[in-house]
Structure formats: structure tokens, C-alpha cells
């Protein structure tokens, strides 16, 4: 897709002045130049032109608010004076995978006082002796070169885009809130289970007491049933004794 057509799609009927971020990666530039991006994008803070076939940045407009510029995987070999003149507040510049061979071609970046991070991965200049020391000496305003500071400490996440950091913090807080809700639900379920067990115990206790009462009633009934039988037996014994006395009298 051509860069101009891609640009119109990214706008989606918005005006250029509304755009704070513009990503045109992997589209095709005409004759290796930037197309369609004008000074109307006055509020642009991040511009990404990765792998678009650029050989020159001469057509980049003056963008006072631009802080982050991605130009990796192109064929740029010089002409960085334009960046120093038109992007005065640039803080992050990625030139990885381009054609820079000599440190002298990077000298114009000295005029970018806010530049804190510079990436030159896969550029021939990285093969030079004392490459790292030479770049930090040339550009003393730099904090990170290829993702590391002068003491080989890796760049922290906070050095990235502030908007991304805020989003991550928001997601982390939401996740913690969800965990707390889940814990409360689990505790509530456990309490319900304990209540159910107590109720079961009470019900079982009532059932057991009822069964005991029934057993006592059954025993009493058995005693009552057996009492007449004993009485009848005693009565019969008495009658037998009287019969024996009558026989003796005769």
C-alpha cells in the first residue's frame, strides 16, 4: 500500500491536528521519500515509519511536539541535519537497520538537546572499535544507546511512552481488584458451607432425639403389653391352687 493511501486510512476522517500518534509501518514510499506528512500534524508526538523504503528524511516537516521517531529497517545513510532543525524536542530516535557507517554521520544529532535514547542496531557503525564510548562522547545528552546506558544498565519501562505506562498501571489495579473480589467470594462460600454443616448437625440431632423418643415409647408399649400376660399367669396359678384344695377336701 502506498504511503499516501495508508495515511488517509489512518486519519479516518479526522483532521491532522487531532493526531498524536501516526503509524505507517510497512507501506511503500515513493522514491524513498516521506509523503503526505505536513506541518498540519502539529500535535503529533509519535511517528513510526518502519520498513517503508526510505533513503532520505529530507521531506519530514517541522513538528514541534514530536518526541519519538521510528525509522528502523530503511536505507537511510545520512542527512540527519533535517531532524536537528525540525524536530527540536525529539527524545527517542530509532535508526536500527539503516546504512550508517561512520560516526561522523551522526554528529548532527548533537543539536537535539532533549535526545535521551538512540538505537543503531544492525547498522555498520556498531562494528567500529570503541563504538559505544565514541557515541556517548559525541552525544553527551544521551542516556541510552541501543537500550543500555553507559554502565550497561538496561533501559527501564518508565523510559517508554507515558500513555502505555498508565494503561499498564490501570490494568494492574483492575486485576488486583478482581483478585480481592474473588477472595471475598471464596470466604463467603466457605461461611455458607459452615452454616450448612451446622444446620445439618441440628437437623440430625433433632432426628436422633426423635428416634430415641420413639424407642422409649416402643419399650413402654412392650412393658404394657407384657403386664396383662403376667397378670393372667398369676390368676391362672391361683385358680390351679384352688382346684388342688378342692380335690384334697374330697
Automatic annotation (TrEMBL):
Residues 150-226, 239-250 have a biased composition (Acidic residues). The keyword Signal does not apply. GO terms for biological process: regulation of apoptotic process. GO terms for molecular function: histone binding. One of its GO terms (cellular component) is nucleus. SUPFAM superfamilies: L domain-like (SSF52058). It is found in: Nucleus. Residues 150-250 are annotated as: Disordered. It comes from the Eukaryota. InterPro entries: AN32 (IPR045081), Leu-rich_rpt (IPR001611), LRR_dom_sf (IPR032675). Pfam families: LRR_9. Keywords: Leucine-rich repeat, Nucleus, Repeat. Belongs to the ANP32 family. PANTHER family: ACIDIC LEUCINE-RICH NUCLEAR PHOSPHOPROTEIN 32, ACIDIC LEUCINE-RICH NUCLEAR PHOSPHOPROTEIN 32 FAMILY MEMBER B. Multifunctional protein that is involved in the regulation of many processes. This is Acidic leucine-rich nuclear phosphoprotein 32 family member. It comes from Mugilogobius chulae.
Amino acid at each position: 500500500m502506498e504511503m499516501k493511501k495508508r495515511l488517509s486510512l489512518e486519519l479516518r476522517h479526522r483532521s491532522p491536528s487531532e493526531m498524536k500518534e501516526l503509524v505507517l509501518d510497512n507501506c511503500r514510499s515513493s522514491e524513498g521519500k516521506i509523503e503526505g506528512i505536513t506541518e498540519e500534524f502539529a500535535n503529533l508526538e509519535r511517528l513510526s515509519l518502519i520498513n517503508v523504503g526510505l533513503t532520505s528524511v529530507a521531506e519530514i516537516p517541522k513538528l514541534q511536539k514530536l518526541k519519538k521517531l521510528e525509522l528502523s529497517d530503511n536505507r537511510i545513510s545520512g542527512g540527519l541535519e533535517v531532524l536537528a532543525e525540525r524536530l527540536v524536542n525529539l527524545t527517542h530516535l530509532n535508526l536500527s537497520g539503516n546504512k550508517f557507517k561512520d560516526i561522523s554521520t551522526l554528529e548532527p544529532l548533537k543539536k537535539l538537546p532533549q535526545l535521551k535514547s538512540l538505537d543503531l542496531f544492525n547498522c555498520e557503525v556498531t562494528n567500529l572499535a570503541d563504538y559505544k564510548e565514541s557515541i556517548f562522547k559525541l552525544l553527551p545528552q544521551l542516556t541510552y544507546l541501543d537500550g543500555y546506558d553507559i554502565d550497561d544498565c538496561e533501559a527501564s519501562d518508565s523510559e517508554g511512552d507515558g500513555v502505555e505506562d498508565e494503561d499498564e498501571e490501570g490494568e494492574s489495579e483492575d486485576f488486583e481488584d478482581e483478585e480481592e473480589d474473588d477472595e471475598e467470594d471464596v470466604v463467603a462460600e466457605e461461611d455458607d458451607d459452615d452454616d450448612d454443616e451446622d444446620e445439618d448437625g441440628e437437623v440430625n440431632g433433632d432426628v436422633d432425639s426423635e428416634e430415641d423418643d420413639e424407642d422409649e415409647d416402643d419399650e413402654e408399649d412392650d412393658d404394657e403389653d407384657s403386664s396383662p400376660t403376667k397378670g393372667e399367669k398369676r390368676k391362672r396359678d391361683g385358680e390351679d391352687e384352688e382346684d388342688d384344695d378342692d380335690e384334697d377336701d374330697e
